[in-house]
Amino acid sequence: MAIALVGLVGVYVRALVFTPIERTQGPAQKIFYVHAPAAWAALLAFAVVGILSLVYLWLRDRKLDTIAESSAEVGLAFSVVMLTTGPIWGKPIWGTWWSWDARLTSTLFIFLLFVGYKVLRGAIVDPEMRARYSAVIGIMALVLVPFIHMTVYLFRTLHPDPVLMKPGRPALPGVMLITLLISIGVFTLLYVGFLMQRYALAVLRDVREEEAASAIP
Amino acid sequence: MSGRRRPQVQYPDNGAYMVAAYIIVAVVVLLYGISLAVRIKKER
After folding, report:
1. Model ipTM value
2. What letter does residue A23 receive in the DSSP assignment?
3. Using the beta-carbon criterion (under 8 Å), do A201 and B43 form an inter-chain contact?
């Protein structure tokens, strides 16, 4: 976790000091070096929830449900970064904070889906039922992840096309590409660090709940 | 001698948006990290 935080400081220095300003968009283009990696981390977290939910319904291993729950919360944190930095970039570049186009709307939708996932988990007391219902939502969200990626191709959107995850060579000059790759690596590390901490918290909570349940005569 | 000067690039004046975005990222990451640490401490 500490390595990831130091890495984030490194990304700030690299992006703000050592990466050139883009000629047409100006300094606001540098938001891209935190927005895109945050979006990557959020969708990675949600994809992990979906995959673990699928495996949970097959194996019924509580550990998988606990990791999925943890990944969902971490994904929400990265979604907050994605959904705030996006409009901050959009205002100077598009002239508007928000546009109800397919990419932005579907991203907001997956965020709200996982808010619902968290609320649902808080509302169901029975761990077995909670894990089963949550897994269904997790799998629904997994279908959304590739759809969100494809929206820029399937619909006419304001959102720019991908620069990395696309056919052909990356659409960025070398210096900017290195900054983006470093940032993606650091945000992935942050995701792993947060996930490990959130999982440790979930395990501690489960132990406490089991102790409380066994104490009831 | 009149040396040729390189034309100065005029960037759009939107640095405040960049600063705001980077501050928000740092705040969200730190707040979430702190919230996790506090919750773990409370559970122990």
Report:
1. 0.89
2. T
3. yes
